[in-house]
Amino acid sequence: MFYQFKLGLIIGGAILAELKVLLVSDDVDNAGTLKSGLSQSGANYVDVMSVSEDLLSRLSSDDYGLLVLECKFPTERFFEAFADICGSIEIPIICFSNERDSRVIAKSVEAGVVSYIVDDKSISRIQPIVDVALARFNERKSLKKELAQLKDKLAKRALIEKAKGLLIQAKKMTEDDAYHYMRKKAMNQGRRLTDVAQEVCDGFSSPAVAASDYAAGSHFMTSGDDAMRPVAMGQD
């Protein structure tokens, strides 16, 4: 459960009221203060568990929208282990702590913490802290999505360029001819251009083609049904 929003559109505890919160504390007996603060700030659902319990199972078993850590003096090792546990689960994380060590704070950020709060659990501050944490989380998520899309585009472009290069070398095509050949094949067969490019690359990488045809100087030509087959150099 994740929420996309702009800070200017948040009114009171409206967003927090919709989130199911998991409060993980290293002192469960005294976690009531922070739990009460979250509730008074608008949270309708706050579950509490100890840091010694199975966090991964708990997160996987319910639809939590916010994870709040209450650890007085967490260590770098604590956040390293925490990162391993939560690495596969996307959830905004806030940490309330007394630890000011910059190395520990850096480790918390690496572990996915979006807001690290030192010595401040006042009720008046909890709602703004949650608002900022959710905004940062959504911004990170958007950036990760954009980065993944960019990597995918670059990978597809590299695949097409590789296929064009193989056709240029083997069939003595121009770059434009190689591209239009693959594009036409994709359109005629109702396939994606990248699928055709992958087919070209796979054809040249197969042992039969690589060892006998391509290595011997053969090239691909287009038959009547626009399929590719290896033929000897010099043939049309």
Please tell me about this protein's structure:
- With 236 residues, the protein is an alpha/beta fold.
- Among the domains are: 14-121, Rossmann fold (3-Layer(aba) Sandwich), CATH 3.40.50.2300; 149-204, Arc Repressor Mutant, subunit A (Orthogonal Bundle), CATH 1.10.10.10.
- Helix content is 53%, strand content 16%.
- It has helices spanning 14-18, 32-40, 55-61, 76-86, 102-110, 123-171, 175-189, 193-205, 207-214; strands at residues 20-25, 45-50, 66-71, 93-97, 113-118, 219-222, 228-231.
- The strands form two sheets. Strands 2-1-3-4-5 form a five-stranded parallel sheet, sandwiched between helices. A two-stranded antiparallel ribbon has the order 6-7.
- Helix 4 (76-86) runs parallel beside helix 5, helix 6 crosses helix 8 and helix 7 crosses helix 8 (193-205).
- It is elongated.
Give the key terms.
9 helices, Rossmann fold, disordered C terminus, alpha/beta, elongated, 7 strands, 236 residues, Arc Repressor Mutant, subunit A, 5-stranded parallel beta sheet
**Spatial order of strands in the largest sheet:** 2-1-3-4-5
Please report the distance between the alpha carbons of the first and last residues: 59 Å
Radius of gyration: 28 Å
**What does the main sheet amount to?**
5 strands, parallel
The poorly predicted ranges are 1-13, 209-236
Q: What is the general shape?
A: elongated
What is the helical fraction, as a range of percent? 40-55%
Return the structural class: alpha/beta
Helical run tally: 9
CATH class of the domain at 14-121: Alpha Beta
CATH architecture of the domain at 14-121: 3-Layer(aba) Sandwich
Mean pLDDT: 79
How much of the polypeptide forms β-strand, as a percent range? 15-25%
- Strand tally is 7
Order of helices and strands: HEHEHEHEHEHHHHEE
Q: How would you name the CATH homologous superfamily of the domain at 14-121? A: Response regulator
- For this structure, the CATH topology of the domain at 14-121 is Rossmann fold
